[in-house]
Amino acid sequence: MSDAVAKLKKERNAVILAHVYQRPEVQDVADFVGDSLQLAQQAAKTDADVIVFCGVHFMAESAAILSPNKIVLLPEENAGCPMADMVTADALRRRKAEIPGVQVVAYVNTSAAVKAESDICCTSANALKVVSALPEDRPILFVPDRNLGDWITRQTGREMHCWEGYCNTHDHLSVDDIERAKAAHPDAEVLVHPECRPEVVAKADFVASTTGLIRYALESPRKSFIIATEEGVLHPLRKQAPEKTFHLAARTLICPNMKSTSLEKVVWSLQEMQPRITVDPVIREKALKSLERMLAIV
Ligand code: CIZ
Ligand code: SF4
C-alpha cells in the first residue's frame, strides 16, 4: 500500500502532510508529520501541485487558504472537528457585537468563516506568544476552546472572554484517570495538553502543545511518561525514544475523526483527486489575514 502511495505521489507531484494524531501507517507515508502550526507552515511553502492533508477539515481549509493555487485533498471528507463546529461565524458576529472594541483570537481549530471573523489565529504551540502580543487596551475574545482559554489566561495573566467550546477527546479525561495512571506508573512524569480540563492540567508535571510535549519527553532525563493527549503522539515518541516508556493517560484519548483517515483512503484520494477542499474567495481573503498575523509572530 505504501508503494502505491509513493508512485501516485510522484505522478501527481503531491506532498502528503499528516497530523501527529493520525494513524501510525498514515504518519509513516507522509512527507511531513507535525502539529497544525507546522503543517500550515509546510502548506504555505510547498512547491508541490497537490497537498494531501491527512488530518481534519479545518486543517485542510487552512492549507487551501494559505496555498490557493494548489489542489488540497482531504482523503476522508467527513473528518471534521467537533470543537471547531462549536462556533459558527453567525454566533461569533453576535458575540462580537456585545463586546465593544473586542479583538478575537481564533484557535486554528475553527472554520475558515470563523477565522474570517477573527483578528488573529493561534495554535496550542504559539497561543501564549500570540495572546501576549495583543494590545492591552482592548478586550479579548478567545474561541472556541474554554480549556485552552483558561490555561492561556493563567499563563499570561491576560483576562479573556472565552467561548464555551471543548474537544470531546481531551475534555473527557478526568482527574481520576490521571490518579489511576499515576498509581500504575509512580515513576512517570505526567505530560498534559492544555485542551484538557483545568483540574486535569493542575495535575501535570508539564503542560504544552503536542510538539512541546514530544520535545520535553525526548529531552527529559526521566524514562517513563504518562501522556495526556491524543494517542497518535505515541508513534513518534516510541520511534524517537525506544528506550523510554510512554503510557496513555486513558484509553479514551483517541479522536475518531483523526483516526478516520486510512492508507486506502489516501491511495483512493490520489487516484481520484478527490475530495477537494476549497474556500470561498471572499472568506479566504479575510481568513488569510488572521493566519498571516499569526505566522508573522511565530
Ligand atoms: O495544534 C495542533 O496540531 C493540535 C490539534 C494540537 C497540538 O497541541 O499540537
Ligand atoms: Fe478536534 Fe479534539 Fe479531534 Fe483535535 S482531537 S480534531 S480538537 S476533536
UniProtKB/TrEMBL annotation:
Protein source organism: Heliobacterium modesticaldum (strain ATCC 51547 / Ice1)
Binding of [4Fe-4S] cluster, residues: C81, C167, C255
Chemical reaction(s) catalysed: iminosuccinate + dihydroxyacetone phosphate = quinolinate + phosphate + 2 H2O + H(+)
Compartmental location: Cytoplasm
Domain of life the protein comes from: Bacteria
Classification via InterPro entries: NadA, NadA_sf, Quinolinate_synth_type2
Protein residues bound to iminosuccinate: H19, S36, Y107, V108, N109, S124, H193, P194, E195, T210
Gene Ontology BP terms: 'de novo' NAD+ biosynthetic process from L-aspartate
Gene it is expressed from: nadA
Gene Ontology molecular function terms on file: 4 iron, 4 sulfur cluster binding; metal ion binding; quinolinate synthetase A activity
Protein name in the entry: Quinolinate synthase
Family statement: Belongs to the quinolinate synthase family. Type 2 subfamily.
Cofactor note: Binds 1 [4Fe-4S] cluster per subunit.
Entry cofactors: [4Fe-4S] cluster
UniProt keyword annotations, A-Z: 4Fe-4S, Cytoplasm, Iron, Iron-sulfur, Metal-binding, Pyridine nucleotide biosynthesis, Transferase
Pathway(s) it belongs to: Cofactor biosynthesis; NAD(+) biosynthesis; quinolinate from iminoaspartate: step 1/1
Annotated Pfam families: NadA (PF02445)
GO cellular component: cytoplasm
E.C. number(s) listed in UniProt: 2.5.1.72
Enzyme class: transferase
Functional note: Catalyzes the condensation of iminoaspartate with dihydroxyacetone phosphate to form quinolinate.
Leader sequence residues: none
